[in-house]
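Friendly challenge for the regulars: who can give me the structure tokens for this chain first? No prize, just bragging rights.
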Amino acid sequence: MTRKPLMAGNWKMNNTVAEAVVLTQEISNRYEKEWAEAVDVLVCPPFVDLKPAKTVLDFDKTKVSVGAQNVHWEPKGAFTGEVSVAMIKEIGCTCSIVGHSERRELFGETNEDVNRKVKALVSAGLYAVVCVGESLAVREEGTTEEYVTAQVRAAFAGVDARDAAECVVAYEPIWAIGTGRTATPEQAEAVCAAIRATLAELFGDETADAMRVLYGGSMNVGNVEGLMAQPNIDGGLVGGASLEAASFVQLIEACL
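First reply, four minutes later:
Bragging rights claimed.
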């Protein structure tokens, strides 16, 4: 099955509102309208930048979607510092990243938290970009596929196939995030194939074939073509290379 590639930029905690407007405008200016048929593009700015970025893209009528980097599963309440699904939906977000390794490692997010967020997003008609990945210690133990597929099962527990089909899984080997180290295309493909096999066990072959699996972990203009050539890699969840319009656009072009 031919899946439409998705190139997603995770800006992490970078860019003031003014800087976000400039970067979004630069991406919009370089975006070619005909790309919309061949590749989906997503940017995930910090919360304060979501509305400004969306405003730029709407004004230019640029076919780039905006997503959040995180979200809380409760609809409202005494959760100081958190942002609800309804809040990001009203801004115009189509999705949120959930379970990024930095959220898991630095802020103690559990598989159960990730699952709650997936359910909250799909129940509101948004989709989740579910991040999974192993540490260097897990890889050296030789248990990468078991570890990652357990994260996939936990994230989608209790989610039906129709909702899961709209979601995206992003494989991000923790040892490769922001380090300049990248899994080889063969290493990345092996894990992404295992992820898709797990999705097939959970939801059936048809749903698994339709779901997009991204690679995240120091994807850049030098390695994107090798990664995108793999049959089970459908795009990227990109950090540093998404913070400059020129490099991000090159990654988009690699999906065409």
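Residues 77 and 84 are 9 Å apart (CA to CA). The chain has a mean pLDDT of 97. Your move, everyone else.
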